[in-house]
Amino acid sequence: MEIWVNPACSKCRSAVHLLDAEGADYTVRRYLEDPPSADEIGAVLKRLGLEPWDIARTQEPEAKELGLGDWSREPADRDRWIGALAAHPRLIQRPIITADDGTAVVGRSEDAVRDALERGKA
């Protein structure tokens, strides 16, 4: 299991705390310091079953500078979105937890983190 975190994010800290409390075996990736490549983002999106615009933080100043809110959300634009997330990792929703069963969740709630833990036990 791996969790992509921004240590300044309270949701990330809560998710890590819960993983620790449950004795989970996981690796922390500080994705702002170690940004995922476009290929890694594409793989995580596949695991999440989501599109890049589903995990984009469109209210961030960087997103507004890029005009992300106005970008098309069509399949033909998927690579453009993934490229933007790779170039601007701050725009990636957090935390993202990759579960041991090959899936992933956006762990913004305790329930989502517990879901990732359960998937690891399956």
UniProtKB/TrEMBL annotation:
Keywords: Oxidoreductase. The keyword Cytoplasm does not apply. It comes from the Bacteria. Gene3D superfamilies: Glutaredoxin. Pfam families: ArsC (PF03960). The keyword Oxidoreductase applies. Belongs to the ArsC family. This is Arsenate reductase family protein. It comes from Streptomyces meridianus.
